Amino acid sequence: MKKYHVYGIGNALVDMEFEVEDVFFSSNGIKKGVMTLVDEPRQHELIGHLDAFEGKKASGGSAANTIIAVSYFGGKSFYSCKVSSDELGDFYVNDLSAAGVDSNVGDGRKDGITGKCLVMVTPDAERTMNTFLGITETFSVDELHQEALCDSEYLYIEGYLVTSNTGRHAAIEARKIAEEAGVKTALTFSDPAMVQFFKDGLKEMIGDKVDLLFCNEAEAMSWAGTDSLEKAIESIKDIASTFAITLGSKGALVYDGKKMIEISQHNVKAVDSNGAGDMFAGAFLYGITHGHSFFDAGNIASLASSKVVSQFGPRLSAEAHKEILGIVLG
Q1: Is the dihedral angle over the CA atoms 273, 274, 275, 277 positive or is it negative?
Q2: Least C-beta-crowded within 10 Å: which of 55, 184, 201, 306?
Q3: Residue 50 DSSP one-character state
Q4: How many C-beta neighbours within 10 Å does residue 234 have?
Q5: Residue 211 CB: number of other CB atoms within 10 A?
Q6: Number of other residues whose CB lies within 10 A of the CB of residue 111
Q7: Nearest 5°: phi and psi at 194?
Q8: HEC per residue, 63-121
């Protein structure tokens, strides 16, 4: 039996979430609904404008949210990332540990600036992110923990790593190590912008094929260059043995390698879409690494992500995870 159910790699970012109106974007030249990389002066400028809004802080980054979800559901997880020796780095390390996640970070961290992500949520529940990567931009093969990776059931790769040369190379190397060790590989596209602007890099990270791919409907169709979900599904089959495509309020589609499975939606009032895809991936990975079918794993993931969008913030309490399992599995 492997020590870890999921070993993740991705950006380490302290998420700072704010509720704003659309006019904030037009006033500050922000593109709504996507993740935009910014430099430190630009992020400081935006933080200044957000001083009037009440914010919430949590350790984040897409893959971190997923790995923490695995842990809260009862799985064992490890996260390789990079934070600095500053105050936010201390906060990040302590937050991971409190969530029960093992990691490569601790003492001996390098000087620098821990990355931050400004998450701005509008009344329509859309999330917009402006990210300064800081030291996580230099995440590299040096941060990989080969022993933990080889002692895991799944490697989970965050698509956002494609924006950094060292991050992309680390993802490729991690996949190769996993494949040689018989560890299954999973990857998320992370954001439509990653598919639109970094498709060649994502192809390198995927290699011949990953065992499991996570994406949403827009990302799938962008990857395939089509406005037909059916055609997109056939294209995704070429790069992933199994996959899950989230459809927002329409639920999700999962492919177990043989058949497509429809996952029902849960009707909730959405107030914040931040973290929904991360939670879906974490819940799904928990499910399939704990003996559950793709159907049951999909239903756990669907309910969990619906709970996330009905509140502010990308995470649920540890108790909420147990309640979800009780509802779905009985």
Answers
A1: positive
A2: 55
A3: G
A4: 11
A5: 18
A6: 9
A7: -65, -40
A8: HHHHHHHHHHHCCCEEEECCCCCCHHHHHHHHHHHHCCCEECCCCCCCCCCCEEEEEEE
Report H helices in the chain. Answer: 22-28, 40-49, 62-73, 87-98, 146-150, 165-181, 192-197, 199-206, 217-224, 229-237, 276-288, 294-309, 318-329
> pLDDT digit string (tens) for 102-159?
999 987 899 999 999 999 999 998 889 999 999 999 999 999 999 999 999 999 999 9
Domains and CATH numbers, the chain: 4-10+61-109+135-329 (3.40.1190.20)
Strands 55-60 and 13-19: antiparallel
Question: Nearest-CA neighbor of 283 among 261, 264, 308, 260?
Answer: 308
Indicate whether this model's pTM tops 0.90.
Answer: yes
In sequence order, the 6+-apart residues with CB closer than 8 A to the CB of 166 are 137, 138, 139, 140, 141
